[in-house]
Amino acid sequence: MKIVKKISEKAEHFLELGGIKKEIILLCVSGASLILSLIDRETDFLPLPFDIAWVSVILCGVPIILEAIIGLLTAFDIKADVLVSIALVASVCIREDFAAGEVAFIMQLGALLEDLTVAKARAGIERLVRLTPETARVIFNGEESVIPAQEVKAGDIIRVLPGETVPVDGIIVSGETSINQAVMTGESLPVDKCAGDSVSSGTVNQFGAFDMRAERVGEDSSIRRMIKLVQSADAGKAKIVSLADRWATWIVVIALSAAVLTWIVTGEIIRAVTILVVFCPCALVLATPTAIMAAIGNVTKHGFLVREGDALERLSQVDRITFDKTGTLTYGKPQVVSVHSVIPCLKDSELYGFVASAEQMSEHPLGKAIVAGFGKAQGAFYNVENFRMIPGEGVVATVNQRTVMAGNKKLLETNNISFGRREEEIQKYLLEGCTVIYAVLDYEFAGYIVLSDTLREDGAQVIDSLKAIGVTPVLLTGDGSNAANHIGQQLHIDDIRSDCLPEDKLSAIENFQKNGIKVCMIGDGINDAPALRKANVGIAMGGVGSDIAVDAADIALIDDEVKELPHLFMLSRRMMTTIKLNMIFSMTLNFVAIALAITGILNPVIGALVHNAGSVLVIINSALLLKWKKEKKSKKSESV
Fold first, then answer.
1. pTM for this predicted structure
2. Contact yes or no for 394/405 (Cβ under 8 A)
3. Residue 51 bears catalytic tag
4. Rounded to whole angstroms, what are the CA distances from 458 to 490, 542, 561?
5. 215-273 per-position pLDDT tens digit
6. Of 324, 453, 524, 551, which is the active-site residue?
7. Mind listing the pLDDT tens digit for each residue in 546-559?
8. Which helix (H) or strand (E) holds 436?
9. Of residues 395, 367, 333, 180, the one with CA closest to residue 193
C-alpha cells in the first residue's frame, strides 16, 4: 500500500508540473525508447513482446492524433498534425513501429521548441490593479474616516497625505503639493498643484497634504480606465499562424494523392506509407521555431529579452515605430544644463553653490538633480541653516548667513520679487521644454538654473539608421508641443504627437493599424502599457522602465541601449529569410524523397531517417543566426 501511495503522490506531482516540463520529460523518455529500439533491432537484447518504440508512439504520437481529430471535428481545421497522424497510423498498420515513433518524436520536439519560444510570463494587469489604492480618507462633517476606495462617491471630499496615492480623479479644493503623475503621462518631473487643479487616480502625492473633491470614481477613474485599455488591447492582438499550418491543407492533399496513386499503380502499400512518412512535415514544422530560437539567442547578446515567441516574426513586417520620449529617447532624469547669474558681482558658479547648498535637504527631484550636478562639478557646499520647504513653490534656507530662495515662478510672486528683463531669455528655455528654477539671494532676484531631460547620445543615429532600412519613426509623448517639437527636430523625427495620454497613444496605434500599417511601440512608463500591448510589437525599456511596461511588451531592452534597435529590426528580417530558405529546402527534400519512395528505393525506416536528416540540416541553417551581424559598409565602399 505504501508503494501504491508513493506512486500516486509522484503521479500527482507530475500532473502539477508546468506543461513545458512535462513535454521535456516525455521527450526524454521517448528519445530513450527510440535509442533502445534501434539497439534492440541489432542485438535483440530486450525480452519484450513488443517494440520499445511504442513508448514514443504512445507518449508523442497519441497527443498528435487526438489534436488532429479534435481540430477536424470541431472546426474542420487541417493543420500539419493531420498528415503526421495519417503517417503514424499507416506506419503502425504495416508494423513499422520504429518509423512511427521516430516521426512522433521529431514532431513533438518541434512543438516543444514552439512552446519554449511562445511561453508567456505576464503579470502586468495584476500590477496595474495593485496600483489602485484600496482605501481613501474621506472628510465628512469635519471628521476624517478611512473607507474602501471603491465606496468613494462623486462629490466626496478626500484628504491625501504626502507619499499616498490619489484614490480617484478629482479637483484640489485646498492645499498645495507636487504630484508625480508619470503613471498617466510619463513625465519625468513632478507637477506642482494647488486649489483648482485636477489630479488623477494612481498618481502619487509627493510633498504637501491636500483636500480634493472626487469627480470620477470606480470604473470611471483614470487608473481603472487604463486597466481596461490594456486588457482590450491584448485581446485585439492577432496571433500569427505558422507557415507549416498555412500550407498544411495543400500538403495533406498532395501527400495523400501521391500515396494513393502509388498504391494503385504499384500495388505495394509499403511504398504508399513511405511517401506519407517522408512527406511528414517535420523539417517544415522545425523551420520556424529553430530560426526563432537562434534569433532570440542572437538578440539576447545585444541586450534584448524576447518574451513572445512570434514577436520577431511580427517585427519583420513592421514599417512604423512609435517612440515614447521620456526614458526612451531621453535618459528620463533632469540634469542641470545651464546656470545664469544676473548679479554682476556674483559668478554663475557661486550662484550654483548657493542654490545647491540650499537644496541639500530637499526631497524634490529637481533639487536632487541640482545637488547631484553641483557635486559632480566638485563644488564645495556652503553651511546651511533654517531649511524650510514650501510645497508647490520651492525651498528657503540660510546659506553662509544669506537668505536663499529657490523654486518656481510662484515663489517669486508670493514674495513680490520680479525677475526684470530676463523674461524673454527664460521663455526661450521654457519653449524648448526645459524647467527653470528661479534663485533669490537676500530677497533680490539673483538668477536662474535651467534643467532638462537630456537626449541619449545615440538617439539621432538610431533614428537615421531605422529610416535607412525603411522604418518610419513617430514620437508619441505626454510633453507639451514645444518640448516635443524641440526634441523631434534634434532627433530628425518628422511625425510628432504631443500632449498624449495613454488613450491617445493607443488611438494613434489603432489608426495606423486600421490603415494597414504594422506598428512597433517602444516605451518605458506605466502610461505606455496600453500602447505596448496594442502594437503589433511592443518593446519596453527594461532598465529604467516600469515592471508593468515590461510585462505589457513583447520584447524588453534590458540595458536600455537603443543603439541596438536597428540590429533587432534587421535580424528579424534575416530570420524570416532563413525560415523561407528552410521551408524551400524541406519541401524540395520531401519531393525528392517521394520520387525515391515511388520507385521503391526508400522504405519507411530509411525514409524517416533521410527525412529527419533534412530536419537536422534545417536546425544547422537556423543556428547560423546565432552569430549573424550586419556587416558595416566601409567608408570606401560607401563612397563608390
1. 0.62
2. yes
3. no
4. 12, 18, 9
5. 888 776 766 665 554 554 444 444 444 555 666 667 777 777 888 888 888 888 778 87
6. 324
7. 566 666 678 877 76
8. strand 435-441
9. 180
